[in-house]
Amino acid sequence: MRIAVLLEKQPGEARVALVPESVKKLVAAGVEVGIETGAGLHAGFADKEYEAAGASVMGRANLLPEADILVCVNRPEADDIAKLKASAVIIGFLKPLDEPAALEPLISRKLTAFALELVPRTTRAQSMDALSSMATVAGYKAVLIAAARLPRMFPMLMTAAGTVPPAKVLVLGAGVAGLQAIATARRLGAVVEAYDVREAAGQDVKSLGAKFLEVDLGGIETQDAGGYAKELSPEALQRGRDMVAKHAALADVVITTAQVPGRKAPLMLTEEAVNSMRAGAVIVDLAASTGGNVAVTRPGEDVQRNGVTVLGPLNLPATVPGHASQLYSRNLTSFIALINDKGNLKIDMNDDIVKGACVAYQGGNVHPKVAAALGIPVA
Ligand code: NAD
Description:
The protein has 13 helices and 18 strands. The protein is of the alpha/beta class. The chain folds into 2 domains: 2-129 and 321-374, Rossmann fold, CATH 3.40.50.720; 136-314, NAD(P)-binding Rossmann-like Domain (Rossmann fold). It has a 7-stranded mixed β-sheet, sandwiched between helices. Strands 11-10-9-12-13-15-14 form a 7-stranded mixed β-sheet, with helices on both faces. A hairpin with a 2-residue loop joins strand 16 (340-341) and strand 17. Helix 1 (20-28) packs parallel to helix 11 (321-338) and helix 6 packs antiparallel against helix 11. The radius of gyration is 22 Å and the shape is globular. The protein starts with a strand and ends in a 5-residue tail after the last helix. Bound molecules: nicotinamide-adenine-dinucleotide.
């Protein structure tokens, strides 16, 4: 079985799907690994490190036709998909629900593809949870970019020139990214408050030394069986927004991470709430790519509003490419172990993780959600 890793071509992308540490493991598990020349360079991994780990480093044109598995961070372009052999497998972030139409070339070529976004969030699949890995990196980096843009410092300092008060940070949404943002802001010395509709998040928030803000939502169920937030009624959302606006008005930094899987991100901060914030305050909207939690966010842009800076970064994990790649690569390697039988490809569609992540199996068995989005019959 041969695995190919390409240099990611998407603008701003600096991650690589496999790092040398994983290559070594895969080679020991009987797999051949081919890496495109320079694929890991932006993430801090040189070709010679891959060679030392047992990979062959070569040009893109030679890699694709020979690959049994193409691993990627972002979905490969159609012209790369066209060069793969008919039995090939693609594994990576394929945006199956956001951009299902882009999967048509691989379905029509009868390829097999696994989207890491669809790996079920079960205990057995934890080591393959690439979404959590990337959310961890994003939550961390969001605080650092806010700190760099804030005209104040984060920690309380007692100096000969007097005392500097700590920054006040408000985190909205206390899932994986939000909790990492809280932990990072606390390490920098900020006073942190956080809000989440899931009551269960309160314990996590408090254990990180932050204050959990509670809203009386009238006892409604806010969490589904999978532990994710449910979409709220307009009234419940409004109650959250009213409370959030009061706390945002006093905050130096607001990091928003609220998402509901498969839906547009909930609006957490209205234009009016942003206008009532202090001049110099910084908002980082981590939900920018799914519609934004802040009314004035523009995806990928910096917006200035009465002295308030609103940042809508689109790919923060790519700005910490070394560790983001390392985590992603470990997730990917755990997934590959499920389909590697002593160096041979063996896809067991009875395995709940393999089946759950499968977008298409030899062009068929199209994932029900993708099939529905594409208007093709569900297998
Ligand atoms: P996510 O990215 O979908 O959402 C981020 C957060 O936004 C969530 O905590 C959600 O409750 C919150 N949110 C949604 N709507 C909101 C609103 N209107 N107001 C305030 N907050 C709102 O979620 P995530 O970070 O990927 O994870 C969410 C949950 O899944 C957590 O409980 C996490 O512990 C759990 N999880 C489990 C596993 C596993 O078992 N393997 C892995 C990862 C995450």
